[in-house]
Write a structure and sequence with these properties.
The protein is an alpha/beta fold and 305 residues long. It has one domain: TIM Barrel (Alpha-Beta Barrel), CATH 3.20.20.70. A hairpin with a 2-residue loop joins strand 5 and strand 6. The chain is globular. The two termini are 27 Å apart. The structure holds flavin mononucleotide. The site of flavin mononucleotide has 25 residues, from strand 6 and helix 9.
Length: 305
């Protein structure tokens, strides 16, 4: 019997499918729906110290190959969100809190507020492509990245800390190394990739913010490449793959490339929450057909050739 349970940096998941940050992980009611739909875990919307309103509409654009969004990290702020999480009762899947900010102090403020029993780990969002000083600028400043990671780790009460990376930075493996050396327990790749779209009738950019982040199938092969590169260098570290996953075959590909687990984002907007069970069934069928007893046996196998 193929087992889908995985343990990622000490966090036990009933299956390797985690809800990606920014997709439904913003209210307790939605998180309950995600748990019931079969997810192995949840990453919350990125939470900042102060509430953020986000950008004006339009903030979201559907493409043939995915989406471009520039929400602007709207969220209710750490104090409010901690109360929202406390409303969850009889909740059994692990929550990973995604935290954002631009200074180590802002990050540790949020981490301290969200240190509640249901939160089993933290994901540092160091890779938002469209909010000034809250994303890829952090990855571009190696000293700042290192300070943020070590300060979040120092207040995390030994909960695992993940750093979410961007494919927009050339030497993503080096940044992964800095994150791990600074105390991160694992890496998540990738966030959306900076993009834009033009409205030919209005003759101007579609999004109010001009630039947004590209997600969905358009980024899948980039995300897979990053996971493959990271596994090459850090085969023993927890790596979580995210980007364009829509079907069970995509999940198998990411695991063979080296992912310990994966996250689903845009596909939820396209197919709804039933996609969790649909993918789980497919992965299980594949594992049984191929004789894999567990996810760990499959992990990284694409590197043997
Ligand atoms: C509408 C939307 C909002 C997002 N918000 C966040 C966010 O708050 N924090 C974050 O780290 N990533 C955020 N992301 C990025 C996703 O978590 C994910 O890394 C990216 O979309 C690639 O995965 P996908 O192709 O499965 O969507 C967002 C993505 C979308 C589409």
């Amino acid at each position: 019997m193929a087992k889908l349970e995985v343990t990622v940096a000490g966090i036990k998941l009933r299956n390797p499918l985690i809800l990606a940050s920014g997709i439904l992980g913003i209210t307790s009611g939605l998180m309950v729906r995600v748990e019931r739909a079969g997810a192995g875990g949840i990453v919350t919307k990125t939470i900042t110290k102060k509430p953020r309103e986000g950008y004006d509409n339009p903030v979201f654009l559907e493409l043939d190959v995915g989406y471009i969004n520039a929400m602007g990290l709207p969220n209710p702020g750490a104090d409010y969100f901690a109360e929202e999480l406390r409303k969850l009762e009889n909740f059994h899947i692990p929550i990973i809190a995604s935290i954002g900010g631009s200074t180590p102090e802002e990050f540790t403020y949020v981490a301290n507020k969200l240190k509640i029993p249901l939160v089993k780990g933290f994901e540092i969002n160091a890779s938002c492509p469209h909010v000034s000083k809250h994303g890829v600028e952090i990855l571009s400043d190696r000293k700042l990245l290192s300070e943020i990671v070590s300060s979040v780790k120092s207040v995390s009460n030994n909960s695992p800390v993940f750093v979410k990376l961007s494919a927009m930075i050339n030497d993503v493996v080096k940044l992964g190394e800095i994150a791990l050396e600074s105390g991160a327990d694992g890496l998540v790749a990738i966030n959306t990739i900076r993009a834009m779209a033009i409205d030919i009738w209005a003759k101007k950019p579609v999004l109010s913010n001009i630039y947004g982040g590209l997600s969905g199938p358009a980024v899948k092969y980039v995300a897979q490449r990053v996971i493959y590169e990271l596994y090459n260098v850090f085969p023993d570290k927890p790596l979580i793959g995210v980007g364009g996953i829509e079907k069970w075959q995509d999940v198998v590909e990411f695991i063979l490339a080296g992912a310990s687990a994966v996250q689903l984002g845009s596909v939820i907007a396209k197919k709804g929450l039933t996609v969790f069970n649909e993918i789980i069934r497919g992965v299980k069928m594949y594992m049984e057909q191929e004789g894999f007893r567990n996810i760990e046996e499959m992990r990284g196998l694409a590197h043997r050739t």
